[in-house]
Amino acid sequence: MIEAQQLTKRYGTTLAVDDLTFTVAAGQVTGFLGPNGSGKSTTMRMIVGLDAPTSGRITVAGRGYGKLRFPLHEVGALLDAHAVHPGRSARNHLVWLADTNVIPRRRVDVVLAMVGLTEVAHRRAGTFSLGMGQRIGIAAALLGDPQVLIFDEPINGLDPEGILWVRRLLRSLADEGRTVLVSSHLMAEMALTADHLIVIGRGRLLASGSVAEFIERTSGHHVRVATPQAPGLAALLREKGATVTANGAEELSVKGMECRDVGILAAGAGLTLYELSAQRASLEDAYMELTHEHADFRAPADSPLRSTR
Ligand SMILES: Nc1ncnc2c1ncn2[C@@H]1O[C@H](COP(=O)(O)OP(=O)(O)OP(=O)(O)O)[C@@H](O)[C@H]1O
């Protein structure tokens, strides 16, 4: 389990992480989401002691990273895919890591096989593609067989087959009861990978919950009804406790009531409906809505590349 309590990190005048409190539970994949520059990498670096909090604390199994006796056996991290010396082979890099952390060398071959690099283990890391670099980083994270794993943007540079492989790996690690925290700025990817989401923007916690809860809380869903008798139907719906907004003369947006009940109510009152449909926000819409105000970099509203959705 990873726990952050009022975690804050300042770099000069930049408040990179701002009073974050969250828990990452064991046995599930937790997606750590936020726009560029929102503080994900800084938070992850603080988990493994590469940065010190300005205030607050972040612990693994109740202890700060500096208090862990055999850190690589307790926390595995992929933070920077370029962290391997370009002149070193994948195997030598892992052997060096194993030797300095009292890990048996046979474990190197196990993790090389796990990440599919056995065949190229003797090639110099400098000749590796970004995707292969990611795989070495993942192998290094798995080396000490730790219960807690953190991956910063692990699918960066991977092809579709590689992305699928990472997704399955994260799932299997969580199914073994490990704590898995994975950062991304892609909501669509996290929706396929994660069970739980922690969303941050400009260093602050914006949401924490399951994927379903996330949609419900941010955008929820509503029923769209088109009828020539909109005022009459709106009054009936409000009497039954629904929240109704008129969109033009013949269209209503209804919250707090499902399609079925709206249809039964309209039929009972002899009202004509042209349309009755459930409108569910996509996860991507909910994420954009939540983080829009908290993004450091965004295209101007009149940018031709900006989505018009
Ligand atoms: N070593 C540093 N010195 C100064 N500012 C930093 C440092 N590291 C990060 N920052 C700043 O802190 C903020 C958070 O950065 P961070 O890299 O943690 O965000 P992120 O969510 O991981 O972004 P991305 O998705 O782009 O990797 C940014 O404004 C960044 O410029």
UniProtKB/TrEMBL annotation:
The keyword ATP-binding applies. Residues 2-227 form the ABC transporter domain. Pfam families: ABC_tran. It comes from the Bacteria. Keywords: ATP-binding, Nucleotide-binding, Transport. InterPro entries: AAA+_ATPase, ABC_transporter-like_ATP-bd, P-loop_NTPase. GO terms for molecular function: ATP binding. Transmembrane segments: none annotated. PANTHER family: ABC TRANSPORTER, ATP-BINDING PROTEIN. Belongs to the ABC transporter superfamily. This is ABC transporter ATP-binding protein. It comes from Streptomyces hokutonensis.
